[in-house]
């Protein structure tokens, strides 16, 4: 269970993320082709409590493709890697809806 400091830091990250990106921008970065329900699920599972392997297991995505996708999300600034190695956790800036937001 996260402590108060972790909770506050996550809230700050979410607030800053929402000021830097709109929900639509994040949605388009996560799902650029518009037909990636598994990618959206994987992105939303990256809440800082799961490793990349745990997310892969839950979504049944291809490991190589997902690794490249995570790298793209990190380089875009919509996801962070907490820690190092196999035990590192993935954290998104904020969750997105499963359907595209209206313009």
Q: What does this protein structure show overall?
A:
The longest helix is centred in the first third of the chain and has 17 residues. The protein has one domain: Orthogonal Bundle (Arc Repressor Mutant, subunit A). The radius of gyration is 13 Å and the shape is globular. The mean pLDDT is 87. The protein is 54% helix and 13% strand. With 103 residues, it is α+β, with helices and mostly antiparallel strands. A hairpin with a 6-residue loop joins β2 and β3. It contains 5 helices and 3 strands; from the N terminus they run αααβααββ. A 3-stranded antiparallel sheet has the order 1-3-2. α3 packs antiparallel against α4.
Distance between the termini: 36 Å
Task: Look at the helices and sheets and give the structural class.
Answer: alpha+beta
Q: So how many helices? A: 5
Poorly predicted ranges: none
Number of strands: 3
CATH level 1 class label: Mainly Alpha
Percentage of residues in strands: 5-15%
Task: Calculate the mean pLDDT score and round it.
Answer: 87
Q: Do you know the CATH topology?
A: Arc Repressor Mutant, subunit A
Oligomeric state of the chains present here: single chain
State the order of secondary-structure elements, H for helix, E for strand.
Answer: HHHEHHEE
Q: Percent helix among the residues?
A: 40-55%
